[in-house]
Amino acid sequence: MGYGCCSFLHKHITTSVYFTAFWELQLRSRSLLTFHGSASMAVRALTRGLLGFRYSRAATVASPCGGHHYVTAPSVKPPQPQADDVTEKILNQPLEKPDFFRVAELFSLKDLFDARVHLGHKKGCRHRLMEPYLYGCRLDHDIIDLDQTMEHLQLALNFTAHIAYRGGIILFVSRRRQFGHLVETTAKDCGEYAHTRYWQGGLLTNANIQYGPGVRLPDLIIFLSTLNNVFQQHVGIRDAAKMNIPTVGVVDSNCNPSLVTYPVPGNDDTPAAVELYCRLFKMTINRAKDRRKQMELLHGLSAPTSQTS
Amino acid sequence: MAASCVRTVGSFLGKCTKCSSSINTVATQVLLSRQVCVSSALCRKNLAAAGPEKFTLEYIQKQVEEYEIGKRHLANMMGEDSENFTQEDIDKSIAYLFPSSLFEKRARPLMKHPDEIFPKQRAVQWGADGRPFHFLFYTGKQSYYSLMHDLYGKILKIEKHQDRLRAKGLFSQDAQLISLGPSRWLTKEELELLLVETISTHDYDRFIKLMERMLAMPYSSTEEEFVQRYRRQLEAQSMKQMMPPLEKDENGVAFSTAEGRRKTSDSSVILRDCGSGHITINGQDYLQYFPVLQDREQLMFPLQFMGVLGRFNLECTVSGGGRSSQAGALRLAISRALLSFLSEGDGEAMRQAGLLTPDPRVRERKKPGQEGARRKFTWKKR
């Protein structure tokens, strides 16, 4: 153990795509996640040549720890060291493989194409920062590069699966009225949470007063559409960045991908595409939760003797 | 708290190094700790922002236990059966033991179940692991939004049902609209009470609009039970006229009794279906009792309106007031007594003519600083 920041930087960058997730999940406390998240993000920015993330978190690490009331691990640690070992093993085992939950099997490029995920907006609506993700432009319509979408979607689903495996709170956000009911139903089916209504200012930043003292904030926010009804960036993206909450967002060709932790370039307007995303996220989360139950049963059964996985 | 106003920011990192063993020490050495001076104003609590006082569940449970014990003590004190001591008995006992002449009923001593005294509050919304119970918790208004979500789900279900019928060819436009009866939608306050959370007028309007939209769809009768939960029955529009019962005396003559009031006069009338048209007031003949034509007209008006002038015998008693108010009281009493002899349509006609409406006008009191009830003293310019 004892990975140093320096040693991390020495690793070869292209293979560190999955190790980014590994490193982030290695540490339990979310405030530290930010710090190392910023380091990993900076690394990714260097490699991919993406525009600099104005990651405001990097400078201000000095936020009081006591303000966060969070539970670091979903399972309450009993005093016995043996059960502690079991929990540690359960939590660390998925981090050893790059695609432990096999999320890559859930979708193929053809599925994305059939769901019309590659269709972007017109050239005039294009956001400057989305240019790297576009395959091209045909008759003024932007086409999103599905190869890149595949990679990003895989990363995003993998991250979601890991968060769900660890019992994190996932919040689905979308301000599109057409898909509000669908997103809420998806969240209900996964056992997670949704917010497809008017976003009140202090929901994340003023949580202790809005909800009551001692509330637990979401551990991941998934944006099915990063824009609100007036075609501006959703306030939740900025607030999540402020509160050190990682975000997964479906960014269309008119969206700003910079503050989203795991952007997934793709169409957010077509019902087929949004249904596909909802289905994929639901399957990943359910899969991860089932896996967790399996692991607990497995280790719970063989806890006193040596474990067999 | 007020004393230690200087926070050291570096201590945060120290705490975190304790909790995670694998932290890189390189990073901690890079960041410096600096002193942050904070004024006591920041440590002060904003009392107004806390909102209405919140009671914990244990406190309310304790209050309920105390109430139950107190109820038994009260029953023993009053010598009543402590098992079957109802709330009415409690109210009477308290009124007896603590007589209060305060005008405001709500200021008088009171002993009620804590559920009626303490406003309904929401219990803690999340479990031991911090996960909220409701899937819309993070919206802030979970009950309202979950209601809207369910409502929209029902609309989609009805639309799917319609599509299925259309595919089979069985769709008909005018089928099975919900019959609601004389009822009204819940008011905003009632909805707030139901949901145990505050909603804005805008939210309420949207809810009503969505409900109306659902009701306008052809096959909405499947969701009738859901809709009725959000409607209240109106009291019967037309109050049934309080008809005096028709009795028969020993000679087989049908008669009815009614009372009437006007200003300070009270009257009672017995209407007999004899056929002579004889009228007695306080033992005297009506010509003697009411020398003025106007009063006699008032008396006769109900009978003349119905065209039964010569049919009935009237035996009246009246007291209080002046001649005009006595005549008015008698008129009301006669009209009421007449209701039992007439049909529904005639009764409705009498009501529309204003014969059955008691006149609410009473003498207005004189106010100080004025000569009369309305008349002011003469105003002199100088």
Query: Helix/strand-derived class of chain B?
Result: alpha+beta
Hey, which two chains have the biggest interface? A-B, 47 and 37 residues
How many separate helices of chain B? 14
Beta strand count of chain A? 8
Oligomer: heterodimer
Indicate the radius of gyration of chain A in whole angstroms: 20 Å
Number of helices of chain A: 10
Describe the sheet with the most strands of chain A: 5 strands, parallel
Number of strands of chain B: 10
Question: Unreliable stretches of chain B, pLDDT < 50, 5 or more residues?
Answer: 1-6, 8-24
Mean pLDDT, all residues of chain A: 79
What general form of chain B does the structure show? extended
Q: Tell me, what's the shape of chain A?
A: globular
Percent of residues in helices of chain B comes to 40-55%
Span between termini of chain A: 22 Å
Low-pLDDT residue intervals, each spanning 5 or more residues of chain A: 1-73, 303-309
Name of the level-1 CATH class of one domain in chain B: Alpha Beta
Level of helix content of chain A?
Answer: 40-55%
Mean model confidence by pLDDT of chain B:
85
Side-by-side strand order of the widest sheet of chain A: 5-4-6-7-8
Taken as a percent bin, the fraction of beta residues of chain A is: 5-15%
Written description of the protein model:
- The complex is a heterodimer of chains A (309) and B (382).
- With 309 residues, chain A is of the alpha/beta class.
- Helices cover 41% and strands 11% of the residues of chain A.
- Chain A has helices at residues 5-10, 16-26, 30-48, 81-92, 109-114, 146-165, 180-190, 207-210, 235-242, 271-301, and strands at residues 119-122, 134-138, 141-144, 170-173, 193-195, 220-223, 247-251, 262-265.
- By secondary structure, chain B is an alpha+beta fold.
- Among the domains of chain B are: 66-117, no CATH class; 142-233, no CATH class; 247-353, Ribosomal Protein S5, domain 2 (2-Layer Sandwich).
- Chain B has helices at residues 10-19, 25-30, 40-43, 57-78, 87-97, 114-117, 142-168, 188-195, 201-216, 224-228, 286-289, 293-306, 323-339, 344-353, and strands at residues 6-8, 35-37, 183-185, 231-233, 247-248, 254-262, 265-272, 279-281, 284-285, 313-319.
- In chain B, a hairpin with a 5-residue loop joins β5 (247-248) and β6.
- Chain B starts with 5 loop residues before the first strand and ends in a 29-residue tail after the last helix.
- Chain A binds chain B through residues 1-6, 26-29, 31-32, 35, 61-65, 69-72, 74, 76, 167, 169, 171, 181, 184-185, 187-188, 191-195, 197, 200, 203, 209-212, 215-216, 218, and chain B through 7, 9, 12-13, 15-16, 19-27, 31, 49, 124-126, 128-132, 135-141, 145, 149, 152-153, 156.
